[in-house]
Structures are given as C-alpha cells and as structure tokens.
Write a structure and sequence with these properties.
With about 400 residues, this protein is of the alpha/beta class. It is built from 13 helices and 13 strands. The chain has three domains: about 70 residues; about 210 residues, 3-Layer(aba) Sandwich (Rossmann fold); about 90 residues, Rossmann fold (3-Layer(aba) Sandwich).
Length: about 400
C-alpha cells in the first residue's frame, strides 16, 4: 500500500489552509478543519480493483487517511457488516433495507473509527495528554486507544451517562471527571482547564482527524453494495461526525473516479427531546440554536448544539434528504423490533433510525424501490442500565 496523500488542512467555514504537520484544533475563525489529500496521487494506488487484497480494517484506505497504517494505533476497527433486514424490510415494504452494524467495532461502537485515526495522528504529532467531553461512548473509545498508544486520557462525562461507559474509562486507566450536566457542560469545563492541564482537545470536530475515521463508513458502504451507493442513509445525529464524514468520502470518491455526482439522501435522525438539527432544518436555517432542557434516553443524541451543524444541514439539503425526530417510546420499540425480528441488539441511538423509517416512507422521502441503509452505531450491551427496566 502507498503512504497517505494528506497535503494540508482546510477550514470548513472560511476555506483558509493550514499545515497538517503540527497539532491543530479549530481555525482562527472558529471553523472545524478538514483534512485534504492529493487525490490524483492517491488514485494511482487506491483503486476499486486494488482493494481486494488489502487488510480488512479501515486502514485499507490508507491513501486518504492521515499517517501510515503501519504506525497506526489500531485495534481492528472498521470492516463492520452490512446486514439485510428481510423481516423489517417486508413490514415496511422495502426489499432492500440494510443495517450497517457498528457494534462489532472495538469498544462496541462506531466511536472506535474516529478515535483510531484521531489518537494515531495526535500521537504522531507529539500530543501526550488527550481530553474530550463525551456523552459516553467516545470517552470509552478514547480511553482504549490512548491506553493502546501509551498516552494519558482525560474524559469529562455527565454523571448520568450509562454505567458501562464510566466503567470502561476506568478500566482503561483514563482519568474520569464526572460533571453534573450535559455534554455541553463537559465541553465548557474542558475549555476552562485544557491550557492549564496541558490537554490536547480531542472533542468532536475540534481536531481534524476523527472525521477521517468516520468517513470510512462511506467507503465501506460503496464496497459492500458492489460498487454503488445506497439511495438513502439514515444516521442517528448527535454531533453528526459520521454524516459529515460520509459526505466528505463521497466527494473524494467522485474525485477518484469511483462514482458520479449522484448522492444518497442524507437523513439525520434525532430524539424529540433534543432535536436542534431537525428544528433548524424545518425552519430553513443554516445552523442550529442550542436546545434547552435536552432529554432523551439515547445519550449519544443528547447534544444541544453540534459544532458541525452547518455541515450537517448543508449535506441534508444538497442531497435532498431530511431531518426527523422520534420519541423515546418509539426508540425503545425499535430496539425490541431489531432484537426480536432480526437478532440484533442495537443501541438506542441506532434504533432511532428504524423508528423514523415509517414516517419517511409515508412522506415519500424514501421510495419503495430505494436501497436504504440504517446506521446502528453501537451495541445495546453498553446500555443495560438504561434498557433493563424499559425492555421488560
């Protein structure tokens, strides 16, 4: 395999360019930075035909990832299954309903993708103390990858986060800081302490490389569907990095000559108790306003205002997609349906996509002949304390 074709970083707001050979957080304008590659050079070795003999984890796409795969902090992330859902598809009248099941990733969730690339690059560029605010799963993934890399991890997490997430951080030796509030309160505390403590901020979109790991979802879907993209992707949206990442992947794939200009409908699914992106979409706004009194049992969806909301909304609108909110009651029903009808014990965040499906079909956002992919972002095993009473 060839080395990374990474050339520079670009601000997603003002389009300023910054060097990729040093630690970076946000642009001076406050915009998230995105990694850019020499895709002509990458395309000489990263070909559809050449993928067949490569390693099965996400590092198979080395040319469009930061760093060297041989030096990555890796635990086997990526390469997760795409499963046909025949019974649930028949109920909805969809012959091609699929689930991209991220529960087989290290630490049991899709957060492993982003933290693998983020921690790998942070270590390569000299960071030694990594910190992030989290609703739960990202904290566990940071703790695991920091331990693998020999780095210190500091995890700021709401006190009411799932117990499995708290134990996971402690098991990996991370310094766990419990906060009375939401992930936004954790982020504020991190911002106050990071300079004094010498922490490198690994928060969602506060550094450029977590999105690179998440974008490999898009490359994998293309391969798993035999060299095509689905017609619609339903993505449970808290911070929305996976949706942003897949959209970025599709742009790269077009530049590589793998696909044309057509894109899947990108559909953001949120909880009705915390739906800032849905509200902004419905109001025709380009960015969201902070959601007051955010409440939902799906901890990963309890993000009052995503930093990358403008990127999420842009992808939704450019793809003729949608944003939709579902209730906790419907999320729990979907957790049961996945488990009892398809044998998949998914997380509440992922189940929100199944809960949204009937309304999207009814409103004709999704057609009966469409190839539809739902994203299950993690294992229900990480939510036993949350789900134990609700699923009885």
């Amino acid at each position: 395999m060839a080395d990374s074709a990474l050339t520079h970083l670009e601000c997603s707001r003002c389009r300023a360019t910054l060097p990729a050979d040093r630690l970076q957080n946000l642009c001076s304008c406050g915009g998230p930075l995105l990694a850019r590659y020499d895709l002509v050079r990458a395309g000489r070795t990263l070909t559809r035909e050449g993928l067949a003999g490569r390693r099965r984890d996400l590092w198979r796409y080395e040319e469009v990832l930061p760093g060297k795969a041989s030096e990555a902090v890796a635990l086997g992330e990526g390469g997760t299954p795409l499963l046909l859902l025949p019974r649930l598809g028949a109920e909805c009248g969809l012959a091609q309903l699929y689930l991209k099941d991220e529960s087989s990733n290290p630490t049991g969730t899709f957060k492993a993708r982003g933290l693998a690339t983020g921690v790998s690059q942070a270590r390569a560029l000299g960071a030694r103390k990594l910190a992030l605010p989290t609703a739960g799963n990202a904290g566990g993934a940071l703790a695991a990858y920091a331990a693998r890399a020999g780095l210190e991890a500091y995890v700021l997490m709401p006190k009411d986060a799932p117990r499995a997430n708290r134990l996971e951080c402690q098991a990996h030796g991370a310094r766990l800081i419990l906060v009375d509030g939401l992930i936004s309160d954790c982020a504020r505390l991190l911002a106050q302490r990071k300079q004094r403590e010498g922490w490198f901020d690994m928060s969602t979109l506060q550094e450029p490389y977590r999105v690179e790991g998440k974008k490999t979802l898009g490359y994998e879907l293309y391969e798993q569907l035999g060299g095509r993209l689905p017609d619609a992707i339903l993505y449970p949206t808290g911070g929305g990095v996976g949706l942003i990442g897949m959209w970025k992947a599709f742009e790269e794939m077009e530049a590589l000559g793998w696909i044309g200009p057509a894109r899947p409908k990108m559909i953001a699914v949120q909880a009705s108790g915390c739906a800032p992106v849905v509200r902004a979409f419905e109001q025709g706004k380009s960015q969201s306003q902070p959601w007051k009194w955010a409440r939902t049992l799906a901890a990963g969806l309890r993000v009052p205002k995503p930093l990358g909301d403008f990127l999420i909304l842009d992808a939704i609108r450019r793809s003729h997609g949608a944003a939709i909110a579902v209730s906790d009651k419907d999320i729990l029903a979907a957790v049961r349906a996945w488990a009892r009808q398809e044998g998949i014990f998914g997380c509440p965040e992922g189940a929100a996509t199944l809960a949204a499906l009937p309304r999207l079909i009814e409103s004709r956002v999704i057609g009966r002949d469409d190839v539809v992919v739902l994203l299950n972002t993690g294992s229900g095993m990480k939510y036993l304390d949350v789900l134990s009473k609700a699923l009885r």
